[in-house]
Every structure is written in structure tokens, then in C-alpha cells.
Write a structure and sequence with these properties.
With 77 residues, this protein is mainly α. Helix content is 84%, strand content 0%.
Length: 77
């Protein structure tokens, strides 16, 4: 019984963390400047649809590594 409760808590924690990460990536996408990030609308739609269909973590991770890290490095220069 303790193992089942622990697994349910662990799964719940992963779902909440995934949701929070997805929301943070959506907010980051909204706050990006249009001149630096031309595909903002496309990424915003993909992030929202991913969140609604259950693929939010995957889409958010792709956005994080493909867009956010690259644009953060450009902004620091």
C-alpha cells in the first residue's frame, strides 16, 4: 500500500512539474520580441496544443532546447 501511494505521489509530482514547465515555456514564447523570433505564433500554437493534448512536456522540451537556449545565447552577446 505504501508503494502504491508513493508511486501515485511521484506520478502526480511529475504531472505538476510538466504543467508548470509548459506554462513557463508558453510565457517565455509570449514575451519574446517579434524581431528576434519570427516563428513566435507557430511555437505558441504548438505549445498550447501540446499542453491540451497531453504532449506538453515533449513540446516544451523541444522548444527549450531548439529555441530558448539558442535565443538566450544570442541575447547575452
Amino acid at each position: 500500500l505504501t508503494l502504491i501511494i508513493f508511486l501515485l505521489f511521484f506520478i502526480f509530482a511529475i504531472v505538476i512539474a510538466s504543467l508548470v514547465f509548459n506554462i513557463v515555456m508558453i510565457v517565455d514564447c509570449i514575451n519574446r520580441d517579434e524581431k528576434d523570433f519570427k516563428d513566435r505564433t507557430v511555437w505558441l500554437v504548438v505549445l498550447i496544443v501540446g499542453a491540451l493534448t497531453g504532449f506538453g512536456l515533449i513540446v516544451s522540451l523541444v522548444y527549450f532546447f531548439a529555441v530558448k537556449k539558442k535565443l538566450d545565447i544570442v541575447e547575452k552577446k
